[in-house]
Amino acid sequence: MKITGSIALVTGANRGLGRHFAGQLLERGATKVYATARTPERIDIPGVETLRLDITDPRSVEEAASIASDVTLLVNNAGISTSTNLVTGDLGKIRAEMDTHFYGTLSMVRAFAPVLGANGGGGILNVLSALSWFSYHGANAYAAAKAAQWSLTNGIRLELADQKTLVTGLHLGMADTDMSASYDGDKMDPADVVRVALDGIETDRIEVLADEWSAYVKASLANDPSDFYKPTGQ
Q1: On the CB side of 157, how many CA atoms lie within 13 Å of its CA?
Q2: What's the CA gap between 138 and 185, in Å, rounded?
């Protein structure tokens, strides 16, 4: 998958990782970048084509696929974080997490898979999380939705193999974006996250671990889960 000469579409491009994806894709020689958001008026990236898109609205997704029928690289970046738990959390917020990360991503894939196939296969990058692999008190709805999105990523990779579409999952801990503004711990520069992700696409990798934390969490899956989920104070 070569970015030079590609035609990309990035969801959630008005801020954070999405904004960096759109900018770096142009820097790497993409012929065209559709920068999408629910409020495209907030997109201020020189050289992109803005497009209104709400990935939770099937009609909006279908309209985007009709307009952007030349896409060869789809970056599913749009996401939300509601800081909601599962047992006592607001059910509407839990559904919103799943509607965005799982059903929204699936809707985009279903709409754009025929586009990618018609244009030679191309690639899909799904922005996942280290939380695809573990749960965190206070963000369990997000973790559940990201776990579902990870499984989705693996499933569509199998289903789109015959049309030669590269499907890559990007996992990261915390990036310094608006979504993580309330988090006081270490954060990656979002520009570095995007650089690593695009390097992965250009080397046909199906999984990119952007940081040591993601690599640590993935490695922990082979161990007894009690080693990871230690009670508070131990």
Answers
A1: 16
A2: 16
pTM reported for the whole predicted model: 0.93
- SS3 percent helix, strand, coil of the chain, rounded to 5, is 45, 15, 40
Structure tokens at 191: 């520009």
**CA gap 105, 226 in Å, rounded:** 32
* Positive or negative: CA dihedral 177, 180, 181, 186: negative
Q: Do 228 and 220 meet the contact criterion of CB atoms below 8 Å apart?
A: yes
Q: What does the pLDDT look like over 25-62, one tens digit per residue?
A: 999 999 999 999 999 999 999 999 999 999 999 999 99
227 CB burial (10 A radius; 0-12, 13-18, 19+): exposed
Which residue type occupies 78? A
